[in-house]
Amino acid sequence: LIAAVVLGPRIGRFYDEDGNPLDKPGEFAPHSVSLQVLGTFILWFGWYGFNPGSTLFISPSGYGDVAALAAVTTTLAAAAGAVSSMFFDTLLGFLSEGEAEYDLTMAMNGCLGGLVGITAGCSTVEPWAAIIIGLIAGVVYVLASKLLIKLKIDDAVDAIPVHFFNGMWGCIATGLFASRRFVTMTYGEAYSPGLFYGDGNLLLCEICGILFIIAWVAVIMVPFFMGLNALGMFRVDPIEEKVGLDISHHKGAAYDLTGPAEGDVAELAEKRATAHGKSGFEDSA
Predict the structure, then answer these.
(1) What predicted TM-score, i.e. pTM, was given to this entire model?
(2) What is the SS3 assignment for 171-202?
(3) How many whole angstroms separate alpha carbon 5 and alpha carbon 221?
(4) Distance CA 260, CA 95 (A)
(5) How many whole angstroms separate alpha carbon 259 and alpha carbon 262?
(6) 247-282: pLDDT as tens digits
(7) How far apart are CA 94 and CA 68, in angstroms?
(8) 175 burial via Cβ count (<10 Å: 0-12, 13-18, 19+)
């Protein structure tokens, strides 16, 4: 977040080349949705080493149960996040534009948001709670993504909604949903469960942790990024930015970015303007 604010938006995202605000934020199409899906599943697979693997052992008594619980909650939250983010974004689009469109990018980032949201409490929450955490994580991702656009903060890969906002949600969710029996199984009887199990100490600790991390990162990274920016080491030349670093640094474009024919796009827009031909049908009737 700090880096995105200091760096500023890409040319054509919120402002034109002369710095004039655009009527609508510019869209930068993904290079390959197929590779995006593949990357998401690779991350999802790696999360099983991150969450269940954090037990560090599997053979001592009780460790297998903790790892199994972490694997189940990780799976449920990721799946729930993918579903809720895509359909929530579809609902918002339908309410604002009258068209139901299903954005695979939203589903993939919602999946990652669910994984981030469950990480803090993967070994302490019930499976049903993991589904709720994932569903809320998907909504948090969509709302946070749209909030950044409103604030004109350019996050090219939506890492801030996925990791920062859902990271905070994951900590808060642990303070709410941590089950007494699973906290005892994982950490022992000396530790407190979540608020929904009659103890608010864990939630208070989670909130304090969030605030401390924000303060720590701000104190360290604001001077760092501002220093890089002042020295001209933080952003490439505007010409390189427009041409692309693949060409300026790697001797050629990595992808064929040829878009659809303008006539086809215009025809689709005209078709939608008539509600997919409904107006013409009514006129002929």
Answers:
(1) 0.86
(2) HHHHHHHCCHHHHHHHHCCCCCCCHHHCCCHH
(3) 12
(4) 27
(5) 8
(6) 777 877 777 667 778 888 888 788 777 765 555 444
(7) 39
(8) buried
